[in-house]
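The protein record filed below.
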Amino acid sequence: MMNLSVLLPMAVETVRDPRTVADRLMGLNLSREILWQALALVVVVSILLAEVGNILLTSMSGMSAPAFFVSPLRMGLIQLSLLVLVVFAVFWFGRACGGTGRFQDGLVLVVWLQFMMVCLQVLQTLAILVFPALAWIIGIFGLVLFLWLLTNFIAIAHGFKSHAKVFLMIVASSFGFAFGLSLILALIGVSVPGVE
């Protein structure tokens, strides 16, 4: 049974040996329904932690919360939407480049990757209480860890040998997505707040 006593040691092992954990997760053969629910759950936990961290920061600094953080629902929908796009991108781009991974493989690994980020969010929230500067360091480490694990997971799921090529694919697709999104927003007349 998967509980925190099992999940937390697996999270630590993921940093040391992502392939072993990835193979174990893919070997569970969980249904898509369970995995989509798990993805939604980790997003909810992530948003709750973000709100707690934001409340702590604003109470300690005396500053008002940025407008983006006012609506947890909006944050949750954006985060969930981006993760769903990542899931489909892992499958489609992997297959387009000759990969052999199943859709469920990419989905379970993205869910696990988000769980890893939630674990870091817990550490970040605790750091805010003890030593706020450490929270920023954990945030930077989290970004690096996210990219490193995503690269490894895509390579493992699709059977790619070159991690460098996978990383370049991630960077290129990210820029392409950002450009396409900005173009669509410009065409429909959506502007970034504060930018004239």
About this structure: The chain has seven helices and no strands. The helical segments are 4-16, 18-27, 32-61, 72-96, 103-130, 132-158, 163-187. Confidence is low (pLDDT under 50) at residues 190-196.
